[in-house]
Amino acid sequence: MGNKTLIITGANGNVGSYLASRFLQRGRKLILIVHKNKQRIEDLEATNPQTVRVLAADLSKLERVKQKFDQIIEQTGWQPTELIHTSTARSHDFQALVNTDEHLWQRILMVNIMGTYNILKTVLPYFKQKKYGRIVLFGSNVSRIGLPRGTAYSASKAAISNLCRSVAVEEATDKIIINTISPGPIKIDESHFSESYRKFREEYYKEKLKEIPLKRCATFEDIFGLCRFLISEENSYITGEEFFVTGGKL
Ligand SMILES: NC(=O)c1ccc[n+]([C@@H]2O[C@H](COP(=O)([O-])OP(=O)(O)OC[C@H]3O[C@@H](n4cnc5c(N)ncnc54)[C@H](OP(=O)(O)O)[C@@H]3O)[C@@H](O)[C@H]2O)c1
Which of 8, 18, 34, 35 to mutate to test the pocket of ligand 1 (most atoms within 8 A of CB)? Predict the structure, then answer.
């Protein structure tokens, strides 16, 4: 199918921004969904006005996302064919569930679970109309191992991979293929995190690296390689699966 348009959520994030530049090199039109920040993709937007559109929205609000998305499609005439959904909220309070603030807990579920529902509600009608679609959701290895002091995040990631299985069956007749990539630790730029969050990650990953058979974190290119296959036409039979990118760690 020619004239492919890939939608990437969390497009200003570590993974989202990397995937945006890699898929642009491969000739995709891109709709990049960002939230509050877009500094990582500003250059990309400025230098590719014919092939890149940036949509700023809070994914937990369905109507706003849908309205802005439909508007871009109407203006450009682009045909959405693929979605990579990386956006996420994280558990920044590092508290055990018993001490977690209920509003923070709800907010993480709202962004991660309702945000997934909202982006699927927005793009699936386009995919269904054309009877073609490739979707990659982002979970995490914590969906199977849990995350002490990050229960809302880990529960939401498990929900995403479960939702993926159900949607795969629901949409199979329309030839829409959906999978979840669940990475372990990815090597990212941590400079923008708060000192307490950096410390939390340092402690967490020091221990985690000992348990990874390949003794390193995943790279963005590791993630890109799997994404590229999963959203390609070559992948016409693998759907509803959760792929753990963890260097051999269970
Ligand atoms: N990095 C890792 O080590 C790792 C490990 C396992 C799994 N993962 C998963 O891989 C995916 C990508 O990770 P990452 O490191 O690239 O994440 P990231 O850098 O934190 O990016 C997440 C993005 O989500 C956006 N976002 C947050 N709240 C939003 C909302 N309400 N509406 C719309 N967008 C919102 C953020 O935008 P703003 O900054 O503007 O709010 C941010 O750009 C995530 O799903 C993550 O759970 C990552």
Answer: 35
User: Which residues have any ligand 1 atom within 6 Å of their CB?
Assistant: 10, 12-16, 34-37, 58-60, 86-89, 111, 115, 138, 140, 183, 185-186, 188
For residue 163, which amino acid is it?
Answer: L
* Ligand 1 binding pocket mutation candidate from 87, 107, 181 (most atoms within 8 A of CB): 87
User: Is 174 inside a domain boundary?
Assistant: yes
Q: How many domains does the chain have?
A: 1
The Cα 188–Cα 13 span in angstroms is 10
* Confidence at 2, pLDDT banded by 50, 70, 90: low
Neighbours of 176 (CB within 10 A): 22
Whole-structure pTM value: 0.96
User: Hey, which residues does 242 pair with through a beta bridge?
Assistant: 180
The ligand 1 atom nearest the CA atom of 12 = 43
- Asked if residue 250 belongs to a domain, the reply is no
Interval between CA 87 and ligand 1 midpoint (Å): 4
Q: 32-59 pLDDT, tens per residue?
A: 999 999 999 999 999 999 999 999 999 9
Domain limits at 101? 4-245
Tokens of 113: 């679970």
Q: DSSP code of 110? A: I
- Determine, yes or no, domain membership for 41: yes
96 or 201, which is more confident: 96
What are the φ and ψ backbone dihedral angles of 211, each rounded to 5 degrees?
-90, -5
Show the tokens assigned to 74. 């109407």
For 6, list phi and psi in degrees, rounded to 5.
Answer: -105, 130
Here the CATH number for the domain that contains residue 88 is: 3.40.50.720
